[in-house]
Design brief:
heterodimer; A: 303 residues; Rossmann fold; Alpha-Beta Plaits; 4-stranded antiparallel β-sheet; 14 strands
Chain lengths: 303, 260
């Protein structure tokens, strides 16, 4: 559905995208991860045909988005990071206007179905100017679906929402997956990606540093992490001693809690022995797997 | 269907954001105020300021004819009506780009040409309608107060349409500037500067007949029939409108609508 090769984009002297390559198959829910300013929105703007790249090819739905003049020619749905509507239009009027923008006739049944699906049927007659951020986001997802596209680009759809709003948006994206749609979904909320995506691309400073199936990335990076809590904050020399243990890769301290990234599960015994030998009172000793956030931070730190 | 929906949307915008009402109220205010000022307010003011002034001198200082009133109204509209038009429509494109409201329609299939043409049609027609209705009101009201002296209503209608066409030209400038910059206030101010300076240069160089401002001079004549020069002025104005509209479409196509 999407095949990008050697995509570059400059803003003046600043290079926003550096030789970006990515591949999205039909039916994928692709999580496009990156910190703020990494170039996620720039990439999406280019892939939706709304902005031009300096170089590279970007095949979207079989067409070169880098050369498209009219974004609608790509046959995609798009939800911008902060979807803007005419404040003086009602939700229903907005969807009718967008449906008619594609040259189709008003279809009240379809409009009602979309309003119901995004949970706005009761607010359909209200002006969009009075909508909350979450309602606008849901209307935006409905608007992206108005032409029944098979491929949707969602730019940070849940980032600025409260937990309830985020939950609503994630439920809608899950529905899209069940409908068989392909979704390209950018975010910096990694737990959202773990919940709904099957493929992940990590963008750091305009460059893709990792791209693969989510389970493959997790398996590759399955390093055990121990969260250890003591009754008193550990002194620096103790932390340094832990760092010197052979099986320990990295230690992070948070007052009375430390997070120890190790090479293998075997390291647990060694850590336990260390705390026992030092006569330190351990309040809790938990093993957890590297999550996407750890993997992401590791990739960022490499850079 | 797509163009119809754009026309409908811009018409709703004009109604719900009071753009039509502001233009209509502004033009009608001057259309009705000019005769009232000349008939009732100014004579009283002169009498109170110069108690010994004889009637003949006073009449020479006042506008006491229907034609004088209509010309006074047309002058007011160029000076102040232009401000109303510029700042009512200054956001027509600039605000849409600034507030990112074009992104979803464009992604849904709206063409850049439709966006520009729809605004020109809806707001342009409203301007021609308002200028015509207002000058007719001024003609009737000043006729009632000072007596009718124009032969028929055709010269007045012609003046209203010429004034409207000039306003459509101004609208095309607003739309074009709106594709170049996102700040609508600057668009409004630059449009005013453009209109006033081009009129001033036209007067200084005596080339008004070859600029859109020539339409306003022709309108003030309040004559039946059309001089050959009017066709040239009209053709130049329409040509410039087409150029500005085409340039706006091309510029909008190249604009990154998502840029923050």
């Amino acid at each position: 559905m999407i095949n990008v090769r050697g995509l570059n984009k400059h803003f003046g002297n600043f290079q926003a995208l550096k030789d970006v390559n990515l591949n999205v198959e039909k039916g994928d829910i692709y999580g496009f991860i990156g910190h703020n300013g990494a170039g996620k929105s720039t990439t999406i703007s280019i892939l939706t045909g709304l902005a031009k790249a300096d170089s590279g090819t970007c095949i979207v739905n079989g067409k070169d988005a880098c050369k498209t003049v009219n974004p609608s020619d790509l046959g995609i749905g798009y939800l911008p990071e902060d979807p803007s509507f005419y404040k003086w239009m009602t939700a229903r009027e907005t969807l009718i206007y967008l449906l008619e923008s594609s040259g189709k006739k008003n279809n009240p049944v379809k409009i009602n179905e979309i309003l119901e699906w995004v949970g706005l049927e009761e607010s359909a007659g209200r002006k969009v100017g009075g909508f909350s951020r979450g309602m606008k986001q849901r209307l935006g997802i409905g608007a992206a679906l108005i032409n029944d596209p098979q491929l949707l680009f969602l730019d940070e759809p849940s980032s600025a929402l409260d937990p309830e709003g985020r939950g609503d948006v994630l439920r809608l994206i899950k529905d899209l997956r069940d409908m068989g749609k392909t979704v390209f979904f950018s975010t910096h909320i990694l737990s959202d990606v773990e919940r709904i995506c099957n493929k992940v691309g990590i963008l750091v400073n305009g460059r893709i540093v990792k791209e693969d199936r989510l389970e493959v990335i997790q398996e590759e990076n399955i390093l055990p992490i121990y969260d250890i809590e003591t009754d008193i904050a550990l002194k620096n020399n103790i932390v340094e001693d832990i760092e010197k243990l052979k099986c320990v890769k990295k230690v992070q301290t948070f007052d009375k809690r430390i997070q120890v990234l190790t090479e293998s599960h075997e390291c647990g015994k060694e850590l336990y022995r260390f705390f026992s030998d030092k006569d330190l009172n351990v309040v809790s000793f938990n093993l957890r797997k590297n999550d996407l956030e750890d993997i992401f931070l590791e990739e960022v730190n490499k850079k | 269907m797509s163009m119809t929906s754009t026309l409908k949307k811009d018409f709703m915008d004009g109604i719900r954001n009071y753009k039509f009402l502001i233009i209509f109220a502004g033009f009608m205010f001057f259309a009705l105020l000019t005769p009232i000022m000349n008939k009732l307010v100014l004579p009283g003011l002169l009498k109170s300021q110069f108690p010994g002034m004889d009637q003949e001198t006073m009449n020479s200082m006042l506008v006491t004819t229907q034609i004088g009133n209509i010309r006074g109204y047309l002058g007011d509209i160029f000076e102040i009506g232009m401000i109303i038009v510029s700042f009512t429509f200054c956001g027509a494109i600039a605000m849409e780009i600034r507030e990112y409201t074009l992104i979803l329609p464009v992604c849904s299939g709206k063409r850049y040409s439709e966006i520009i043409l729809s605004k020109m049609i809806v707001f342009g027609l409203s301007l021609i309608l308002v200028t015509t209705v207002s000058i007719l009101s001024n003609y009737l009201y000043s006729g009632i107060l000072f007596g009718f002296e124009i032969d028929g209503v055709i010269p007045v209608l012609k003046a209203g349409i010429l004034q409207g066409l000039y306003m459509v030209f101004i609208l095309s400038v607003i739309v074009f500037l709106g594709t170049l910059m996102r700040n609508q206030i600057i668009v409004g101010l630059l449009t005013l500067i453009f209109a006033y300076v081009s009129r001033l240069l036209g007067n200084l160089l005596d080339i008004n007949g070859f600029t859109p401002a020539g339409l306003l001079i022709e309108a003030e004549k309040l004559e039946n029939g059309s001089a050959a020069g009017l066709y040239i002025t009209t053709a130049i104005t329409i040509g410039l409108i087409v150029v500005f509209v085409a340039a706006s479409i091309l510029k909008l196509r190249k604009t990154d609508l998502t840029r923050r």
